[in-house]
Amino acid sequence: MTPMRRGMIAAGIAAALVLLVVFGSAERHDAGPKVTVDKVAARTVRSSILAGGILNYLDPVKLKPEVIGRISAIPVKEGEHVHRGEVVLRLDPQVYEAAVQQAEASVLQARTAIESQKLTVANLALQVKRQRAIFRRGLVDANSFDNLQSQYAIAQVQLQSQREALDIAQAQLNQARQTLAKTVIRSPIDGVVTRLPVKVGETVIAGTNIPGSTLMSIADPAEIIADVQVDEADIAHVRLGTVADLHAVSYPDAKLTGKVIFVATSVTQSAALASATAGRNFEVKIALQGRNLPRILPGMSCRAEIYTRSAPHTLAVPVQAVLYGDHASTKSLDTTAHAYVYVVRAGKTVKVPVTTGISSDTWQAIDQGLQAGELVVSGPYQTLHALTAGEAVRIEAAKAASAKPKNSGNITISAS
After folding, report:
1. pLDDT value at position 166?
2. CA separation (Å) from 155 to 257, 260, 362?
3. Cβ neighbours of 214 (radius 10 Å)
4. Do 280 and 323 contact (CB within 8 A), yes or no?
């Protein structure tokens, strides 16, 4: 091969390489940026609010002493199941038994006094009857007859007084017996002893506001609630019967659901005492649903996701796919006004205004503007916010496609 021929071949190869580089660069430039897309599809979108709080039993019963006494026996233990009417604690009854005996003696004394007074009244009645006949004959002066009648009347009044004294003594006996009965503490419900802070030998004092006056707490473990605090900005959307998902810190893998059974009508006391600039919270109680609940201990931390609104079978797109125009001149206070998405049609972006509905953490409902099956650009974030209408894009293959849920709606088409 002559040197001239070898030079011509080398020049041709170099020209071909230059053309490949030029056309390759032009092809990559014309293809545009890579984007991920999602299909517009009908989904159930639920708007929710988050609130933190603690788990507790519904309506736990706190047993408090009604009389002063020394604890003589505690036949139950903390965590033990008890039945309604079962004896759970006893106080030393000696003082109150003595009071009952004294009241019984008073009742007996009052009855004896009545019987004695009855005899006195009967005797005076007989004397009055006899002297009346003698007085009619003029054998007894009027003063003597009048004095006898007065004594008879007084005796009748004293008999009535003795009967009333018996009633008082009987009432005191009943009261003493009731007080004695209060030395035996019984469970008012079927449940579990959740707290038992006292011991045998300790002296308890009656009173509801005295620290340490609680003998024990009993609750039904089947009725569990989440007591959460909802911010004042969200409380208007919470209604009785609203469904909620609960996440307990102690059971991160347990799926708990419940319904709102109580919404406070006034601000939480602790928040009310805070400064005027501090946020206000309202108490909301959520009853857990289901039978196979985990072992809940009072005071466990939890987080509640309360679903305030739901839109089943509505067209929805990922929340990050919806963009909002900056119209500083508008007077509208609606922060969702001028919403739009980028739809991919024939490899290019089309800016489509949309009317949004409710949203969740993942999905944004679209009331108007899109049709099922259309492809909307959902990422990446920087690429999406830098897009313009009519720009050519390439659909990026989704990573780890096999790990995605079947109905995720994310397109996994490889770039051509």
Report:
1. 95
2. 77, 70, 94
3. 17
4. no
pLDDT of 399: 47
Burial 275-299 (b: 16+ CB within 10 A, else e): eeeeebbbbbbbebeeeebeebeee
CA-to-CA distance for 303 and 248, rounded, in angstroms? 6
pLDDT of residue 154: 93
Give, for 11, the enclosing helix (H) or strand (E): helix 3-31
| Sequence-separated (6 or more) residues with CB below 8 Å from residue 416 | 394
Query: The tokens of 137 are what?
Result: 């004959």
Q: Give the span between the Cα atoms of 370 and 342, in whole angstroms.
A: 11
Q: Which pair of tokens denotes residue 122?
A: 């009967």
pLDDT at residue 384 in the model = 87
Q: How far apart are CA 137 and CA 410, in angstroms?
A: 128
Handedness of CA 258, 408, 385, 390 (dihedral sign): negative
H/E segment holding residue 176: helix 142-181
Secondary structure class of 389 (helix, strand, coil): coil
Nearest to 40 by CA among 398, 372, 377, 406: 372
Query: In which order are the strands placed within the sheet that holds 184-186?
Result: 184-186, 87-91, 69-73, 203-204
Sign of the C-alpha dihedral computed for residues 167, 172, 176 and 182 taken in this order: positive
pLDDT averages per 10-residue partition of the chain, 416 residues = 57 57 47 84 86 88 91 92 94 94 95 93 89 81 86 92 94 95 93 90 78 82 87 86 88 86 80 55 88 77 87 88 67 61 89 87 86 88 86 71 41 32
Residue 294 has what pLDDT? 74
What's residue 416's pLDDT?
27
Q: 1: which DSSP letter? A: -
Residues 6+ apart with CB under 8 A from 255: 245
Q: Which helix (H) or strand (E) holds 44?
A: strand 41-57
Element (H, E) at 395: strand 394-395
Contact assessment for residue 236 and residue 309, using Cβ atoms and an 8 Å cutoff: no
Task: Please say whether the beta carbons of 341 and 354 come within 8 A.
Answer: yes
Distance from C-alpha of 246 to C-alpha of 287, rounded to nearest angstrom: 10
Q: Strands, E, within 252-333: which ranges?
A: 256-263, 281-289, 301-318, 323-324
Distance CA 86, CA 10 (A): 106
